[in-house]
């Protein structure tokens, strides 16, 4: 196949990791230290259009209406080089990305971004990749993007090389009443990137080996909970997994955290709601923002309490979302 003569546009949604990966075995290929499991969300997504064009002397990358010229441009061009190598082409590309996710604030904007880019760029280059191969490609940009190729509950098999490290669906159509309440406590970019944080935890935390063992066990437990539609086990293990991941950061040298005062306040409020009989559990990625897993009947109580503390605009309700889709105007 040849590159397309018009732009290809793809949409991918972000995901929240319920069993997280935190550390890589291979940084160049982004091979993780443990397998992970996530839920794709319907409210946060990225739209990306790509076209490879003979007349371009360099990649032209527009992000939220602004032409990129910094490290972000170089990172995307490196990713496009992978696509060019796969397709056997040398043309540069025009890339237009619109992100409907607070960038770099712990809501996995890189997941939706590179999943959408993998879909649009590969098809624009003339490739017809399977979902598994798309997940492998997306992984080269961002590890969590591996899972955003798929809707609903999805997993990332850690593997040991490029071929064996890929995402796969667990339950793409979620037919039980699960919701996610996102609390956006800070929309600014985090000071310590996920990559920097992972390196520090792997290199210096004395508890890192225990983390890998526990996360591996959590993966099996959460996968069975999904099969059984056992929300309490799913929520409890997801919350504990998140807290253990962040404990690694506190045990690193030097110690660091993605939490702020509002993060700790939100955690306390979730515990209070649970003590009052509302089944809800929090998870937190590499940022201060909280995501709350709850059953649909508990959503109103969770939203009301969190809005009272942080304002109406800070609280968003999401549900299981779809996998990668292609958009035709």
How would you describe what is shown here?
The chain is an alpha+beta fold. The protein has two domains: about 10-175 and about 320-325, Ribosomal Protein S5, domain 2, CATH 3.30.230.10; about 180-320, GHMP kinase, C-terminal domain (Alpha-Beta Plaits). It has nine helices and 14 strands. The strands form three sheets. Strands 1, 4, 5, 6, 7, 8, 9 and 14 form an eight-stranded mixed beta sheet that branches. Helix 2 packs across helix 3 (about 130-140), helix 6 packs antiparallel against helix 7 and helix 8 runs antiparallel to helix 9. It is globular.
In short:
Belongs to the diphosphomevalonate decarboxylase family. Its EC number is 4.1.1.33. The chain has 9 helices and 14 strands.
Highlighted features:
four-stranded antiparallel sheet, lyase, 2 domains, Ribosomal_Su5_D2-typ_SF, Ribosomal Protein S5, domain 2, 329 residues, 9 helices, EC 4.1.1.33, alpha+beta, globular, Alpha-Beta Plaits, eight-stranded mixed sheet, 38% helix, 14 strands, single chain
């Amino acid at each position: 196949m040849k590159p397309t003569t018009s732009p290809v546009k793809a949409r991918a949604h972000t995901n929240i990791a319920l069993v997280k990966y935190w550390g890589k075995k291979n940084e160049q290929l982004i091979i993780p230290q443990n397998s992970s499991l996530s839920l794709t969300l319907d409210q946060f997504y990225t739209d990306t259009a790509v076209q490879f064009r003979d007349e371009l002397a360099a990649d032209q990358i527009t992000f939220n209406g602004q032409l990129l010229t910094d490290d972000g441009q170089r990172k995307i061009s490196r990713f496009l080089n992978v696509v060019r190598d796969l397709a056997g082409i040398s043309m540069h590309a025009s890339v237009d990305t619109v992100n409907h996710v607070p960038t770099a604030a712990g809501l996995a904007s890189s997941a939706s971004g590179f999943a959408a880019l993998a879909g649009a760029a590969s098809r624009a280059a003339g490739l017809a990749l399977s979902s598994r191969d798309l997940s492998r490609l997306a992984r080269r940009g961002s590890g969590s993007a591996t899972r955003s190729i798929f809707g609903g509950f999805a997993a990332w098999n850690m593997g040991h090389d490029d071929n064996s490290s890929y995402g796969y669906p667990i339950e793409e159509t979620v037919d039980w009443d699960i919701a996610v309440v996102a609390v956006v406590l800070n929309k600014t970019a985090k000071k310590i990137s996920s990559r920097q944080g992972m390196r520090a935890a792997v290199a210096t935390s004395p508890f890192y080996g225990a983390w890998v063992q526990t996360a591996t066990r959590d993966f099996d437990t959460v996968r069975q909970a999904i099969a059984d539609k056992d929300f309490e086990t799913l929520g409890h293990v997801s919350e504990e997994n998140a807290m253990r991941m962040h404990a690694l950061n506190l045990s690193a040298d030097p110690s660091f955290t993605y939490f702020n005062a509002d993060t700790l306040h939100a955690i306390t409020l979730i515990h209070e709601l649970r003590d009052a009989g509302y089944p809800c559990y929090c998870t937190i990625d590499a940022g201060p923002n909280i995501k709350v897993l709850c059953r649909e009947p508990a959503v109103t109580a969770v939203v009301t309490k969190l809005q009272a503390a942080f304002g109406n605009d800070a609280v968003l309700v999401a549900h299981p979302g779809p996998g990668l889709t292609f958009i035709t105007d």
